[in-house]
Amino acid sequence: MAAVGRTEPLREPRCSLRRFRVDINVKKPLQPTHLSSEQVAVEIWSLCFQLDLLIRAEVHQLQEQLREDKSPVESESFHTRGIDYVERIKHYLEHLPDPVPQLEDYLDSQGLSTLFPRVEIYVIHGRPVDMLERPTTDVLTQPHGFL
Description:
Blueprint lengths: L36 H31 L8 H18 L9 H7 L2 H4 L1 H9 L10 H6 L6
Helix pairs in contact: 1-2, 1-5
């Protein structure tokens, strides 16, 4: 592989002019896209599925921490990726006709809260710790087996 030479810049800018500023959007398309309600539903379903897998993996790690008698700590990467998924879902909701539904309402109306209950809980609470399962012995100690 050939080495790439580095040279000093010919000139250093003295000031930054706003008219020469460039905004870079890594996750947004340059051209606005128009999506049908069906396309929005497919995209949101796909993102919910991916978020559900992410939550499931995080809950599994948190349960492992509990089994090792450690205090459950959410990973930073989970937090970052979870927020990203939720923001992307909200972005797709903006393609729906006005009035744009709230995320929780859309999940309920489309039946996604039933398919992905972990996603609904994560959207409401913003964390997976509330989803940790109680040990089975708790069920036996509660009256009538209700938690």
